């Protein structure tokens, strides 16, 4: 290796001589485009960073022309949990590298996107004591010590001054922690403490220049300029902070799911997104630093999903799992369309979003004294004492603007002279234009307020700052428009927002929450589980923009946010809570405990619904909503082992050579591997992508459960199957003892010929008189 570096100048000089002899490239020839690529080389077998770096540089020098020697440079290098690097390459160079025997995959560095209080009280009403329940499971986790659990948050950084990250009462930082608190112009080591124990940021490479690598610092600081990472961290593990509100709304005590856990922040994202190579670097560092679990509220595009060996999160999470680190990810915000869920690898815990029992009401008062309930958050000074002219968007259209655009308040579609001083009604029937844009269109035209018509998004309150806003459904809108058309001088006002708790039904699956089945494999149910993700109150970066801060108020340090980004840290916090009690449980045991104890009922005692009011199915909610206290004592767990994941890769279609590189083990694939066998890995749910109703036969699925409850226990299976689908559990009774900790069973599925086609959903529940272990299934009948 050393000889290679010593000879590098000579090699470069030699290549320059060749260039001089053959002449220069024509000035009108377009040079190949250079972009950042990730070169993934599988599992790491050595922690010698320098040796790995030299090997990677040598590999680059073999394919990059010597006249471009400045590109023989590593943007990021991975060598601890996995090996590889990112670098600036042309498409041809990337293709050449992919042919190298040591390389598993080469892919263009993707830009991933961010998926963006009372929620914990809603999830965890104090349970009644049970005489046979252990004391740890009846103690509310506020009183449990979880300070030895370290959560890594990969996001936009952190705002360390927030009260949610203060450390009174915390003991010494665990000795296994090897991380750092990086300093910058606006972030000091003293910003870290016994709660916020680590903070990193990364240099990233811009793709703006096609023939040069432009390195930026992503802010050059661990500090969060956006607030997304701060909100996520506080939701997962924020300390107790009393008397918190968002300008008087959602008042109460703010806390995370595991308030005593430590936080380590990894700033891998900016407002422009999150480079995949940087996310990989953050996962690598988090594992090396000593975190117990990683929370990632980020994902690939639902439209352009790559396979698992071209997905940075899937790659990093795989190696994290191999090293005992749990990875929890958001499912994405591309719902309600099917097959939009992302982060679908089985070794990732994938989270959908639901509402809680709190509503933000923004009431519309018409000039005829009729009132209508809308939703939204605003802090305007409008009141019931004065009304303003009311107009439909199409009636205040700009000259030569199509009325169809004006009714929807497209940018440039309204006449400011006609809009000024009025409250405008706009239709939100084009999903490509977000509510924020329509609000700006009306506000910039000097309107007094906006009434937006959109039933789908009503359950997700929009924050319009100090500009009056209400969102209503089509039923209410028709009455408002009838009033406009039947009145010579229609007027209205929008009353200040108020919040209401114990709203029902709740939870409801959020309209934006991405749905399954997964595009990459529908033999695993994704998302896995649901958690609160609508109007979640948590710490943010105080907004210094006076145009959005209510008059006379200071910038709020807490605010509401919605998205699967907010649901993900709820599950991370719950998982940290469970790990703090069950130190020896693996990630898959914790995942199983949360999945098999999840609830599918709302606060009315009825089955959970989606945003349309229909019953939610597993492709929308996974197994249901998390119940962290119940998960402390699940009775049985499904342990998904590393060998299960190796088999998954075989069944998915990867070669044994590739799998051995990824796992660093001499693993042999089962004979006749195919994707249907994915259904057989020991997962806490079952999915079958194709059950032919025209061919007589039974599809049999095998599972193994591990007893983590009373040593002597007998469970009986109860099947809940839809019509047209016969489901039998063999055996129907399983027994455990001091010597028998694991028991296997089979589930046989058979479809009647008269059954309709499509997915059928049901469940199998194991009962012992104390525990209820519920496993959901999804079967596609064709």
Automatic annotation (TrEMBL):
<dbReference type="Pfam" id="PF05922">
    <property type="entry name" value="Inhibitor_I9"/>
</dbReference>
<dbReference type="GO" id="GO:0004252">
    <property type="term" value="F:serine-type endopeptidase activity"/>
</dbReference>
<keyword id="KW-0378">Hydrolase</keyword>
<dbReference type="InterPro" id="IPR010259">
    <property type="entry name" value="S8pro/Inhibitor_I9"/>
</dbReference>
<dbReference type="InterPro" id="IPR023828">
    <property type="entry name" value="Peptidase_S8_Ser-AS"/>
</dbReference>
<dbReference type="GO" id="GO:0006508">
    <property type="term" value="P:proteolysis"/>
</dbReference>
<keyword id="KW-0720">Serine protease</keyword>
<feature type="domain" description="Peptidase S8/S53">
    <location>
        <begin position="148"/>
        <end position="609"/>
    </location>
</feature>
<feature type="domain" description="Inhibitor I9">
    <location>
        <begin position="37"/>
        <end position="115"/>
    </location>
</feature>
<feature type="compositionally biased region" description="Low complexity">
    <location>
        <begin position="132"/>
        <end position="141"/>
    </location>
</feature>
<feature type="region of interest" description="Disordered">
    <location>
        <begin position="206"/>
        <end position="230"/>
    </location>
</feature>
<comment type="similarity">
    <text>Belongs to the peptidase S8 family.</text>
</comment>
<dbReference type="InterPro" id="IPR037045">
    <property type="entry name" value="S8pro/Inhibitor_I9_sf"/>
</dbReference>
<dbReference type="InterPro" id="IPR034197">
    <property type="entry name" value="Peptidases_S8_3"/>
</dbReference>
<feature type="compositionally biased region" description="Low complexity">
    <location>
        <begin position="206"/>
        <end position="216"/>
    </location>
</feature>
<feature type="active site" description="Charge relay system">
    <location>
        <position position="155"/>
    </location>
</feature>
<feature type="active site" description="Charge relay system">
    <location>
        <position position="228"/>
    </location>
</feature>
<dbReference type="InterPro" id="IPR000209">
    <property type="entry name" value="Peptidase_S8/S53_dom"/>
</dbReference>
<dbReference type="Pfam" id="PF00082">
    <property type="entry name" value="Peptidase_S8"/>
</dbReference>
<keyword id="KW-0732">Signal</keyword>
<feature type="domain" description="Subtilisin-like protease fibronectin type-III">
    <location>
        <begin position="680"/>
        <end position="779"/>
    </location>
</feature>
<dbReference type="InterPro" id="IPR041469">
    <property type="entry name" value="Subtilisin-like_FN3"/>
</dbReference>
<dbReference type="Pfam" id="PF17766">
    <property type="entry name" value="fn3_6"/>
</dbReference>
<dbReference type="InterPro" id="IPR036852">
    <property type="entry name" value="Peptidase_S8/S53_dom_sf"/>
</dbReference>
<feature type="active site" description="Charge relay system">
    <location>
        <position position="565"/>
    </location>
</feature>
<keyword id="KW-0645">Protease</keyword>
<feature type="region of interest" description="Disordered">
    <location>
        <begin position="122"/>
        <end position="142"/>
    </location>
</feature>
<feature type="signal peptide">
    <location>
        <begin position="1"/>
        <end position="27"/>
    </location>
</feature>
<dbReference type="InterPro" id="IPR015500">
    <property type="entry name" value="Peptidase_S8_subtilisin-rel"/>
</dbReference>
<dbReference type="InterPro" id="IPR045051">
    <property type="entry name" value="SBT"/>
</dbReference>
<protein>
    <recommendedName>
        <fullName>CO(2)-response secreted protease</fullName>
    </recommendedName>
</protein>
